[in-house]
Amino acid sequence: MVKTSAVGVAYWQNNASSSYSPSRGVPETQSIPPPEYAATSSASYSNTPTTSYSNTPIASYNNASSYQSYSPTAYNTGSTSYSNTFDSPYTSAVPQAVENAPPHDLDGSPYALLSKFDTVLLIDDSSSMEWGSAPTAWQQVFLALQTIAPIITAYDADGIDVYFMNYLSKSSGNVSEGVAATGFYKIQDAAAVEEIWSMVDRPSGITPTGERIRYILAPYMKRLKKETKAGRDVKPLNLIVITDGAASDDPESEIVKIARDLDKLDAPLTQVGIQFFQVGKVGSAKQALEDLDDALENRYHIRDMVDTVTWNGRDTQAGLSGDGIVKAVLGAIVKRLDRKPASGEHQRN
User: Is 161:207 a contact under the CB 8 Å cutoff?
Assistant: First the structure.
């Protein structure tokens, strides 16, 4: 079900032309030829959205077909009320120095590496996210976004992209430039990320984690192969998946395919990272994500491009902070953080 209230969504305006911004991941020419690699078949990727997803347009929302940026122009967190908003003592402290500092003041921050990556959020809006007592996993997504959104938006100069598991925007993205359709693009402030979260009035549907990861990364991988062959670099991508972890499909198989293609391209180990940020208490799902984190290198003997943070907002009054935030946003691309437990997360056995 999609929220149709004019509050919030009516404020979204188109602030960009219909053309694609050249600032996202513009390849940088190299003076040396690319390494030898085995060609991979583009047939292994599909950029056709599944018919099981809802594509109902949002009232008062400009669902433009081209790749455009959106920003709220009258967003008031103090007076705006959404059906998703809940009363809870579980709040996540946002580091104000990161949120408000200009870019040149962020150079010494532990999050500075994020500026080298395009950051993409994939948010689980399946029905299981509302199961259990408050705060539900869906409400904990909001708490997580309060913590990480100010950081990841501050460090991606051209803005982050946001996708849902089930709700699809009408945007066609820019597949030729490596950007999949059905997302919300170039988001440059935390309020906009929270506004997008509020568009889903009630989570519903299955959890096609693997399919959505493949769908989002397919255009990027196609472009990466093309640019690598031409001897040019492509800006690395950091995909953060916020989920309760209970996938309906087989994300491991999809991630293994992507990792093998990256190995065939001899791409840098940090070219693509997938960070699973698990919310809620789904013990079996937690174990499945941790197994996936371990499987790539130990079982398949391919690159380790996955990390997992398991956080339960019920267990902490402050949410993630300090090293926990660093791991949550950088764990998949900084491997020394991979085994480091985050504050607020459950320890591995």
Answer: no
CA distance 95 to 113: 17
- pLDDT per residue as tens digits for the range 198-235: 999 899 999 999 999 999 999 999 999 999 999 999 99
Under 8 Å between Cβ of 302 and 266: no
CA-CA distance, 113 to 97, in Å (whole number)? 17
CA–CA dist 159, 183 (Å, integer): 13
Closest of 16, 102, 26, 115 to residue 62, by C-alpha = 16
Residue 20 lies in a domain: no
**Distance, CA of 126 to CA of 212 (rounded, Å):** 13
Rounded to a whole number, what is the distance in angstroms from the first to the last CA of the chain? 39
Question: Cis omega (within 30 of 0) on the bond before 208?
Answer: no
Residue 244: phi and psi, rounded to 5, are -80, -5
* DSSP, residue by residue, 153-202: HHH-TT-EEEEESSB--S---BGGGTB-SSSEEEE-SHHHHHHHHHTBSS
Structural domain boundaries enclosing 163: 58-337
Q: Is 52 within 8 Å of 168 (Cβ atoms)?
A: no
* 74: in domain: yes
How many Å apart are CA 178 and CA 42, to the nearest integer?
13
Which of 236, 212, 238 is closest to 224 using CA atoms? 236
Residue 117, both tokens:
């990556």
- The number of distinct structural domains making up the chain is 1
CA gap 341, 344 in Å, rounded? 9
Q: Are 308 and 290 in contact (CB under 8 A)?
A: yes
Domain assignment present for residue 323? The answer is yes
> Do β-strands 160-164 and 184-187 pair in parallel, antiparallel, or remain unpaired?
antiparallel
Residue 26 counted as domain residue: no
Separation in Å, CA 197 to CA 121, 144, 343: 11, 11, 24
State yes or no: pLDDT of 321 exceeds 70.
Answer: no
**What is this structure's pTM?**
0.71
> Do residues 279 and 312 make contact, with C-beta atoms less than 8 angstroms apart?
yes
Phi, psi of 179 (to 5 degrees): -115, 115
